[in-house]
Design goal:
Structural class: alpha+beta
CATH topology: Carbonic Anhydrase II
Helix content: 10-25%
CATH class: Alpha Beta
Distance between the termini: 104 Å
Mean pLDDT: 88
Strand content: 25-35%
Largest sheet: 13 strands, mixed
Shape: globular
């Protein structure tokens, strides 16, 4: 009887030892997997979700996974894109942009993702028979859109709203050249970190645009989360200028805050020429 109890005790001990070894092996494998593939905490509420341009876990390639409200970032009609001029479609349906811009007070914000000028007053752009209200303009460096695979040093986006589901953004490229008047006056006031600068001075908004306003047109999205696919894009063909020194100083503030280009997925880029 004692011999039977002894054998049973040995078997139980051996079984427990195997169980501990298996548990330890599984734990080691799980820890290794977690190290190799960091798990993103998917959230339903996007309010406090942090996103970035450079971190692998919070960067552009993973925006769609950060929370439910960012799912459009994985959509089929995303922006920005590369504009291949040999594939652009001539269109007789597009019309010249009518800029009904006036002046706006100076309100410059660095929100951690870009430097943005908030706009006040009734500043409108008539875009293919609809009046869109200008809300703000902000900058990206390098440019978000590319033309024939080429980035520009800076791209500015003039963001307009017609309704909650109908936005229009006018993109303008910068090239190196003579000093930019807006930068000359306010570049030293641009917050280099999150912050705001305000002044009672006013900006003549029309003076920020190139003389020739021919453009490329396509349907796309916001280029930052939530990446909503509700944007008509008008990328002006003609750039504005800034000096080499201005571009360098501005680029040091923005730290490559651009989203890489996305596939067209069957969309066509049209063009308007005056």
């Amino acid at each position: 009887m004692k011999q039977k109890i002894s054998i049973i005790t040995v078997l139980i001990g051996f079984s427990l030892l195997l169980s501990c070894n298996n548990t330890q092996e599984k734990t080691t494998k799980n820890e290794k997997a977690a190290t190799e593939h960091p798990k993103v905490n998917h959230k339903k509420n996007c309010k406090d979700v942090h996103w970035s341009y450079h971190n692998a876990e919070t960067g552009p390639e993973n925006w769609k996974n950060l929370c439910d409200g960012f799912s459009d970032c994985g959509g089929k009609s995303q922006s920005p894109i590369n504009i291949d001029t040999k594939d652009v479609v001539q269109s007789k349906d597009l019309k010249a942009i009518e800029f009904n811009y006036g002046k706006s007070n100076v309100d410059i914000i660095n929100n951690g993702h870009t430097v943005q000028f908030n706009v006040n007053g009734k500043n409108l752009a008539k875009l293919n028979d609809k009046d869109y209200k200008l809300l703000q303009f902000h900058y990206h460096s390098l440019s978000e859109h590319t033309v024939n695979g080429k980035h520009f040093p800076i791209e500015v986006h003039f963001v307009h709203k017609y309704s909650d589901k109908d936005y229009a953004v006018i993109g303008i490229m910068f090239v190196e050249g003579k000093e930019n008047p807006l930068f000359k006056k306010y570049l030293n006031q641009f917050p280099t970190h999150e912050g705001e600068y305000q002044s009672d001075e006013t900006i003549d908004l029309l003076s920020l645009l190139p003389k020739n306003k021919d453009y490329y047109y396509y349907n796309g999205s916001l280029t930052t989360p939530p990446c909503s696919e509700i944007v008509s894009w008008y990328v002006l063909k003609n750039p504005v200028e800034a000096s080499k020194e201005q571009i360098k100083k501005f680029s040091e503030i923005l730290h490559n805050n651009y989203r890489p280009v996305l596939p067209l997925n069957g969309r066509k880029v049209k063009e308007f020429n005056q």
